[in-house]
Amino acid sequence: MKLRVQYMAQLRAAIGRTEEEVELSEGNSLADLLNQLANTHNAARSHFVTETGHARPSLLIVVNDSAVSAREAATTVLHSDDVVTLLPPIAGG
To answer: Which end of the chain is more exposed for a tag (fewer CB within 10 A), N or C?
Structure first.
């Protein structure tokens, strides 16, 4: 299945693009997608997953206009044509 991944803020700069189309197997979860992105974009790996391969808790994730927590990533099944937006935490003052 194909889905679209949108990158925001520092993640956009780290990846070097605003979005991309990703091929994923039917029935894969959001956690599977994050691990695939971490492997594809190794230099930005720490933005997607922790050292143990779990979804980064500070990553803000939206799937088709619905927020999904990192804790829900393993149980959130993705579907063809889903749009996943990833936003790393923003610091500033």
So the answer is: C
pTM of the predicted structure, to 2 decimals: 0.93
Q: What residue has token string 């029935």?
A: 27
Tell me which amino acid residue 76 is.
Answer: T
Residue 51, CA distances (Å) to 36, 44, 45 in order: 14, 12, 9
CA distance 23 to 90: 28
- What are residue 18's phi and psi, to 5 degrees? -90, -25
Q: Does domain 2-87 have CATH number 3.10.20.30?
A: yes
Mean pLDDT over each residue of the chain, to the nearest integer: 94
